[in-house]
Amino acid sequence: MHLQIFDVEHGGCALLTCDNGTRLMIDCGHNATTGWYPGEHLRRLGVRHLEMLVVTNYDQDHISGFPNLVENVSIGTIVRNTSVAPKDIWSLKSEDGIVSSAMQRFIQAISTKYGPPGAAPALQFPGVAWSTYRNAYPIFDDENNLSLVLRLQVGRFSFLFPGDLECAGWKHLLATNREFAGVVSTTTVLMAAHHGRFNGICPELFDTYGCNPELVVISDDYRQFASQNTTNFYGSRCRGISSFRNQGPRKVLTTREDGPLTFTWQGAECCVY
């Protein structure tokens, strides 16, 4: 079993591959600089079917590779924040300007083949427990705070993918979802919300609810915004790992500096390289 976090610049894409070959992809961004696309990557591996795609955020950098993905593989199911209807996604994106072709393709897919919205299917992945948490539309009417939070539990290791959740969304979700408030303290690896930007930080997550991960991973490219300078904050809330690529201890990894990352399991232990 392994979990890959790809370098898709200021975006998101990760892939969990189980021992029996079943696969769960989290977001489907692409890398415009290198020309890396998620569908072509899977096809090079000889993969023709993806059991599940989880979309954490309704922004371009999380779904830019969706057309390439569906052109290369079939998808069993798409898990998303179903409180937001396809027409509402279109409305939200229209407020930002022109709706991208990738977003149009995604909205069409969830309106037809992967709709109408309903409860997430109870797909099982060997050795993995997964759960999702979200704020509801229209309590929030912005894409970031409508992010779907995915928790993956593999053995004793818990990964939290919060999409682009901002502080207000974190606070509301923690205050209103008792289960979510209870599991955040078990997080081993936290994907920094909103690609490490400051508005994705919720101090209460750490100081009140006990989130104290071993590692924080930031999926981003060069620092486009001053608000991306958050590695010191995240490092202060991490326990750290003893070694990474023979570089010594680390607390925060970034695709910007460290490139693609792979978490692998051997028995009960997990390592990252």
List keywords for this structure.
273 residues, alpha/beta, 7-stranded mixed beta sheet, 6-stranded mixed beta sheet, 10 helices, globular
Overview of the structural elements:
The protein is of the alpha/beta class and 273 residues long. The chain has ten helices and 13 strands. The protein has helices at residues 38-44, 60-63, 66-72, 86-95, 101-111, 167-176, 178-183, 203-207, 231-236, 255-258, and strands at 2-5, 14-17, 23-26, 49-54, 74-79, 128-134, 148-154, 157-161, 189-191, 215-218, 252-254, 261-266, 269-272. The strands form two sheets. Strands 5-4-3-2-1-12-13 form a seven-stranded mixed sheet, with helices on one face. Strands 6-7-8-9-10-11 form a six-stranded mixed sheet. The radius of gyration is 17 Å and the shape is globular. The model has no long low-confidence stretch (mean pLDDT 95).
Nearest-integer average pLDDT? 95
Order of helices and strands: EEEHEHHEHHEEEHHEHEHEHEE
Which structural class should the secondary elements be placed in? alpha/beta
β-strand amount? 15-25%
Considering DSSP H and I runs of 4 or more, what fraction of the residues is helical? Answer: 25-40%
**How many beta-strand runs?**
13
N→C terminal distance = 14 Å
Task: List low-pLDDT spans.
Answer: none
- Rounded to an integer in angstroms, the radius of gyration calculated over CA atoms is 17 Å
Q: Biggest sheet, open or closed, and with what strands and sense?
A: 7 strands, mixed
* Arrangement of strands in the largest sheet: 5-4-3-2-1-12-13
Helical segment count: 10
Shape: globular
